[in-house]
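User: Working on a comparison across species. This one is Tetratricopeptide repeat protein from Actinophytocola gossypii. Can you predict its structure so I can line it up against the others?
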Amino acid sequence: MRFRLLGPLQVFDGTAWVTVGAAKVRLLLATLLVRANQTVPTETIVDELWGETPPKTATTQVHGYVLRLRRLLGEDVLTTVAPGYRLVVGAEDTDAQRFELLADQGHAAHRDSRPESSAEHLAEALALWRGPAFGDVPASATVTAEAERLTEKRLTALDTRVAADLDRGRHTTLIGELRRHVEEHPLRERAWAHLMLAQFRSGRQAEALGSYQRVRQVLVDELGVEPGADLRDLHRRILADDPTLALDVAPPAVVVPPICQLPADVPDFTGRQAQLDAIAAALADRYPTAPPPVWVISGGPGIGKSTLALHAARRAAPDFPDGQLYLDLTGTSPEPRAPAVLLAEVLHALGVTGAAVPDGLHARAALYRSLVTDRRMLLVLDDAASAEQVGWLQPPTGSCAAIVTSRSVLTDLPGARHTELDVLDHGEALDLFTRIVGAGRVEREPDDAAAILRACGHLPLAIRIAAGKLLGRPAWSLRVLRERLEDESRRLSELRLGELGVRASFDLSVRLLDEESLRALRLFGTLGPWTVPGWVLDPLLDRPADELLDTLVDANLARLVTTDASGQPRYRLHDLLRAYAAEGAEAIPLAERRDAVTRLLATWLDLTTRAADALPPSLFRPPPGTAPRRAAPAGVARRAEADPVTWFAAERVALLDGVRLAAEWGLAELAWELATVAVPYYDHHSRYEDWQHGHQTALAAVRRAGDRLGEAVLLRGLAQVQIYRDDFTPATANMERSAELFREVGDKLGEGLATAGLGTIHRVLDQHEQALDRAKQALELVTAAGDRHTEAQLMSAIGAMYQARDEVEQARHWFTEALTLSRHLGDAHREAVVLREMCALHEPGIALTNLRRAEDIFASLGDDRCVAYTLMKSGEIHLGRDDRARAVPDLEQAAEIFSRHGSRMDEARCWELLGDLDRARTLWRSVAGPGSG
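Assistant: Here's the predicted structure for Tetratricopeptide repeat protein from Actinophytocola gossypii:
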């Protein structure tokens, strides 16, 4: 055991249990423990530690707290995984894990009528508690919720342990403990029932009746309700001195002929182990006096809901000796079966036939409940249309249980637990495919098998159809089917076998949609195979579409995949369903579809521009074009402006798909503006692949449209990526062509920036005279264009060139001019850059003061990468003064930031300065590629 959280938070350091000093660090550790083995984004950690009012330096503070924890736990336990951190926790590394394992064993022993074993396991589990869970951790939403969950499990474990002790005849010794328990938890009726039973069995009938009066008064005073049926029944039996309450008297057994209506199990059932285990545990954890366990399996068409339900029911059947009922509710048919008809079918199975079946719905439901109350029966309710339909069939007590399947998410079914199925993972999909097709064929063509599974989207129904086709065509190679499925336009037609068909399965779900929801689904299908935020439906439909999106999600046609780090829920369509929706979108007139796509892309452009405006100034910010812009929803825009870095990280794939969509629809100006407006983010965070991919996609569109301004901007951007990759020949050609195009369209600022880019190429190639000439030419053009911010940037660049030539006075002059202009403009980011770059001109004390000032500015602007460069410079200065105590923290923090941003060369430089040559060499090799070093 490594962590103790059932009480004050403690960590085992190898020799003793120690507490974590600072409150924020304890809260950070608690947050990571609650989400053990998951990547917790830095933004989420900031929310947990500071709520709605984080300091400007919150991200930097989190890095510091992580370093402190890492020194205690080790780097292999607390790892950095973009976009945050992961705490690696083993199966029994916490006392909470140990408690839950022992408690589960105790509950299972109690269900199996093994009171000695039950009490032993539960007593051992409860002994692990040293106080309230996370007792010394500051409150946060995540930690508080987990503490409450564990506390409820503790109380449930205590209840079951007391029940086991009562079964062992320890009623007299329990009375004192139970009195304290009900004083602490006066609203827990089960605890009062245990106390009353212990008192009655100890010959204290009057005290037991008095306890009932006390709990009744508490419930009436506190909640305005009478005790529940179980407690009232116990009171009645105690009042009547019922002999069956005595320990040695058992009620007469009821013999019921078993019923088994379950269809045959699927012989090649594959995967879903976690869901099976969860359902099995829920069905086993039931009590006759408690509500019945009801488990709802929901998911899209063809996902395998019925197969999972029947397999789980078959596994659980021995625990329901009175029988298993199966009902097809036909929820996806035009007319789902009426509850009265379903109840008549159940009553017939239970032996009530003919005139004995009551006429009314309520009368049938009442008779059904009375017949199954004391029976141990399992119901499988397949293809439910609604919670109302299922509600009439729910068994009345915990001696029974129900498994329900539905294409809708039945969240309004009281007390139900839910599993929403996703597609199979690759291993499960391959296993299912292999079981049907045969291992030999798959082993001969493994790549084709994987491609077929990808074309099926790992959807179980599609895999069964594809495998069934191959099974019936032994002369086919897997490549034949692969090639037939690779054409997305005919894929749905190929995935049909006899009565089975993916398109037919989708039709069942889609015909339940109203016209507007169907239109929403079809327009959704025109987008790419990525997760997108929910607001995209608004511009596509030209109206608020929250309720339509909810309809698609509830019908399991659109899937809510996650909530991203910026707090936006994200959705996608399964690949086959997207193809089905796109096929259906052909019914929408072309002009309407084009207008919908244009509205969406115009909204993306407006939103991306807002987010880019909130980033630090960038030399590579594109000129504004004349593409249409449409205001994004206010809440979405605020989120993007408040934290643009997190927003861009969440949307980068969707933005690139927006560029593709614009290019496909011939919207050239939208394509190049969408591609280039994100460049400041790409630059600050080294996203060169995204930068290049978006620019190349848009470049083909602008050349087809003859858009010279767009081509000029894109070529300059592509050249900058090539500069970063030391690919100077094409960079020079692209930058020269960009300058020429800017000159042709009369854009002096664009021409100046392209000229500055050529200067950069000369400087990197040690052609200092040409570099300086280009920089001064660029300055003249930018000054003529009236862009003072870029003017300050170029002055700083010229200063750096003179500094590289050891012309100190000239360098000082240009840096001073740049600093003065930056401060005059209020351009804090440029001021910080100048302070950092000119530090070599000062003695170490002044240089370090300026670097700290620059670091504070970068931190306040959220520019982590510039923080890292500043820390690296200060670390170098400290090393030059032989002050490792100050150098090491600066260089370690810089290395960690570079690692998160993927800046391997800069990270390697930090480790090299620290003397960690092995780590530096590893990173240099990763930069240089295979065969290096």
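For your comparison, note: The chain is about 60% helix and 5% strand.

User: Helpful, thanks.
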